[in-house]
Amino acid sequence: xxxxxxxxxxxxxxxxxxxxxxxxxxxxxxxxxxxxxxxxxxxxxxxxxxxxxxxxxxxxxxxxxxxxxxxxxxxxxxxxxxxxxxxxxxxxxxxxxxx
Length: 99
Description:
It is a single chain. The protein folds into 2 domains: 8-61, Arc Repressor Mutant, subunit A, CATH 1.10.10; 63-99. Helix content is 68%, strand content 0%. It is built from 4 helices and no strands.
């Protein structure tokens, strides 16, 4: 196992790294080497920026619109499931009393 800690980079650093990698005369490998990051990491950042646009690299605690909606729907589902379970239990209790 590696004891090396995972490094974290802020959004500005990632955007600047990607911008540098697209400059004429600069290669991805050269930019990665100059910045002290893995070439693969820079390729991932480029792909993420290309696919997600300016919503890429939201940062810790910041979610995309889809992630926020998914979280809201999961919370709502948990609440409705809990309400349903309570009603099922109540129905069982009241149906036993009638007998």
